[in-house]
Every structure is written in structure tokens, then in C-alpha cells.
Amino acid sequence: MIGFAGLSHLGIVSSIATASKGWDVVAYDPDASLCEGLAEGRLPLSEPGLGELLAANRSRLRFSADPADLGDCQVLYFSSDIPTDEDGLSDLSPLRRLIGDGLAHASRGATVVVLSQVQPGFTRGLADGLSAQGSRDLQVCYQAETLVFGQAVERALHPQRLILGCADPMVPLPDAYALLLDAFDCPILTMGYESAELAKISINVFLASSVSVSNTMAELCEAIGADWDEIVPALRMDRRIGAHAYLSPGLGLSGGNLERDLATVTALAAQHGTDAAVVEAWGSNSRHRRDWVLRTIHSEVIRNRDDPVIAMLGLAYKPDTDSTKNSPAIALLEHLKPFRVRVYDPVVSVSVAPNPRCHGAETELEACEGADVLAVMTPWPQFAKLDPREVAKRMRDRVVLDPYGVLKADACREAGLSYHTLGAPAR
């Protein structure tokens, strides 16, 4: 029996994926209504394929609001997402309460696994505390979560690798835990607690560096008349950069995870006297690039027209998710409160919009009716099917801001639209 304590995005996806590998799973959360909904097949989040995976494996899943139901689990994961504040700083107090509830019922000899992303030193502190209490021979591990919003099911079922933190990496893993991990058929990297905790952070920091470099060079392209899309193939052919490097410019860092890890590195550097000035610069670059759409709307539309109408496609911070954590679209709406905005998102309700003049449209084209500018804020695949001629027919002025290049630039220009995208001069 495998247990999961904490049923936010991470715990829900991970518990269902584990059941799909043939294990009986108890999934605990103190929210009884959440557990009841999951037991009835109702998901509180949007992830492609997750509903089907839950339906296929409900016979092996038991959702419970009673922590005593975790008592028969040989492996017990703590799997709640970690909330962050506006500065990206983590609040670990809910996780600590969850661990206290779960450990009170853990069986003797069980393997306790911290799956939530925590700061280096957290897991060792937990292990040392349990050891000092002589707590039922519980063995403590850390497992780096590798889920990506919008791709969580694929990443949960087929992880690229598993990163494990242990008290002694040379000691074999407990039998039940090793058997569970083998079911995922991927490389397993075993290391000390702090190394594993920092490995996950390091992955996100490297990703943030790639995003920052891409954004910086793409902005130069916009200024001097170069085209970032023409440059990217040359970078991918350089072995030091690689074919799979993240080279797509965007509207800063969003979603919360990257910001949290940059904040963690900055705090650790300050605590231990190491240099993290470059990490602070990435945060500054992110804030600057997030305002690209706002600056362009002001220069192209607001200064030229009284009471403009703004159309916005997308509220989620990325496609295939309903998460709006640090969404550039939500941040933009905060600055557009004086203006009329027509919004469409296929998943996210317009009720989250922090704008009293915001109207929810039923379709993409309805959002464009009478608009002076169209901003494509989330690269949902369905937006790429829009016919720029139909968009142009419905707009008053014809300015299109397409930071992610969802629409076809040539087709937009042929339709008479003034087309702006990241990494290329306006056309």
C-alpha cells in the first residue's frame, strides 16, 4: 500500500499515476469535500489525460480525510504543493502540519518520502528529529518532483529520471520503496539529502538562465531588426548549448516555481556569503519582459485613442492548465483597470480577472469585436487556428500583440493587421 498526504496538484497527479502502475493507493487530505469529489471522479484541476487516468484506476484509489487510513502504507509520500508569496518565498507551515498528521499514524518501518519541494536542509532536519524521538524505525527520503503544469500526466507516468535524497546514498533503498520506483522504468540518481534538494532547484535555475538569455537577446532583435527565430537553429547546433535547449522568449518567469527557486538561491547565498548577483539580475529581467505587452499597448494604442477596447486571449500562465499563478495575463489586467477589456480563455473563468471593466467572451472572435488591440497572452493551440482575416473584420483598430508567435505572422500582415511578436521587429 502506498500513501500520499496532501492533495494539491502534485499529490493528485502523483497518487493517480502511482495507482496506474498497479499499486493500491491511499490519498489523504484534511479537506473532506475535496476527497469526496475525487472519490466521485471530480477533479479540481485541469491536466490533459488526468480525468481518463483517474477513471481507469479508481478501483485502486481510496481518497480519505482521515489520516489514520495512512497506517497500512509501506511508503508514505508527503505531496502538497508549497505556497509562495509575491516575492517567491515558500511557506512550509502547511507541510509541517501535514507531516505531523501523517506521521502520527505511520506504521513501524515505513518509508517516509518528502515529495514537496523544500529548501535544502529540510529533509535532514525531519530525519534527525525522528531519530531523536526514536520514532518507529521510520526511514526518511526526499524525492525531487519533476511535474510540469500542462504536461503533468506524461511526466508522472514517464519521468526522465528520479532524483532521491537519502541519509546514506550507499545503503540500498528499502525494499518496498525500491520496488515502487522500479515500476517507473527510468534512471534513479541517489545522493545525499541536501544534494537532492538542491538538484531540483538547480534544474529550475538553469531553466531560468535560459529564459533570461533568450529574452535578453530577443529584445535586442526587436530593437535592431534581427529575427530571433533565425538565430535559434545556430544555437541548437552548438553542442555546448544543445538541440533541446530552452530558447523560446516569453513574458518573464511565471507559474511560481522558478521564482520560488530563484528566491531560495538568493536567500541561501545571503545566508552563506556566496554571490548570487546574476540570479537577482534574472529576476529583474523577468519583471522587465513581463511588461512588454503593456508597453506596446501604450505606445501603439492607448496614446492614440481615448477609451480603447482591448481584446485578450488567454488567462492561464501557460496552455493546458487552469493555473494563473504569476500569470502575465493577470498582471497585465491589473494595469488595464481604467480600460474596457474583452477576454476569452478555454479553461479559466473571467471571474479571476482583477478588472471591473473586464467582459468574458464566449469565443475568440467575440472577444475581438470592436477591439483596438488583440493580445494573445496564453499560447493555447486552438488560438493558432484563428483566421487573421476574420480577426481583422471584427476589430476597430488592427493591432495584434502575439508574444509567443501563436498566429502566422505573414497571414496577419496580409490581413492588414499590425503584427508584433517577441524577438522580431514590428511589421
Explain the layout of strands and helices.
Elements lengths: L1 E4 L3 H12 L4 E4 L3 H8 L10 H8 L3 E4 L10 E4 L14 H11 L7 E4 L7 H12 L5 E5 L8 H6 L4 E5 L8 H8 L5 E5 H32 L3 H9 L20 H16 L4 H14 L1 H11 L6 E5 L14 H8 L4 E5 L13 E3 L3 H5 L4 E4 L11 H7 L4 E3 L7 H6 L3 E3 L7
Parallel strand pairs: 1-2, 1-4, 2-3, 4-5, 5-6, 7-8, 9-10, 9-12, 10-11, 12-13, 13-14
Antiparallel strand pairs: 6-7
Helix pairs in contact: 1-3, 8-10, 8-11, 10-11
Structure description:
The protein has 427 residues and is α/β, with parallel strands linked by helices. The chain folds into three domains: 2-192, Rossmann fold (3-Layer(aba) Sandwich); 201-288, N-(1-d-carboxylethyl)-l-norvaline Dehydrogenase, domain 2; 291-420, Rossmann fold, CATH 3.40.50.720. Helices cover 41% and strands 14% of the residues. It has 16 helices and 14 strands. It has an eight-stranded mixed beta sheet, with helices on both faces. It has a six-stranded parallel beta sheet with strand order 11-10-9-12-13-14. Helix 1 packs across helix 3, helix 8 (193-224) packs across helix 10 (257-272) and helix 10 packs antiparallel against helix 11. The longest helix is centred in the middle third of the chain and has 32 residues, at 193-224. The chain is globular. The N and C termini lie far apart (59 Å).
